[in-house]
Amino acid sequence: MIAMRRFGIVTAINPMRRMVALSSEEGYTIIELLTYFDLEVGDEIFWDSGIELGMQRFCNLTKGSSNEVYVQSHGVQESQLRKQLLLP
Q1: In a domain, 25, yes or no
Q2: Per-residue pLDDT tens for 27-60?
Q3: Closest C-alpha among 28, 26, 36 to residue 10
Q4: CA distance linking residue 53 with residue 70, whole number of Å
Q5: Does the pLDDT of residue 26 top 60, yes or no?
Q6: Positive or negative, the Cα torsion across 74, 77, 78, 80?
Q7: In a domain, 58, yes or no
Q8: pTM (2 d.p.)
Q9: First-to-last CA distance in the chain?
Q10: Which residue range is the domain that position 41 belongs to?
Q11: For the chain, what is the domain count?
């Protein structure tokens, strides 16, 4: 199967837990930052798989940088964002 590039916008960040929500056409993708990756709400991000979990390279088009992140889930509904981001 050929991977289709995905695009999303950083919509929420839990800096204490290093969890990030990216909005896309397929819902929200939740990633965990294992190392420093300069992301801000509004940054445009792309990645290669909308189904695979685990380690993937994500690229920040806004800042021209990239990093390996841990993908927790794809297709998350907005009503589940707080839970997925581990927010109180």
Answers
A1: yes
A2: 999 999 999 999 999 999 999 988 899 999 999 9
A3: 28
A4: 7
A5: yes
A6: negative
A7: yes
A8: 0.92
A9: 39
A10: 6-78
A11: 1
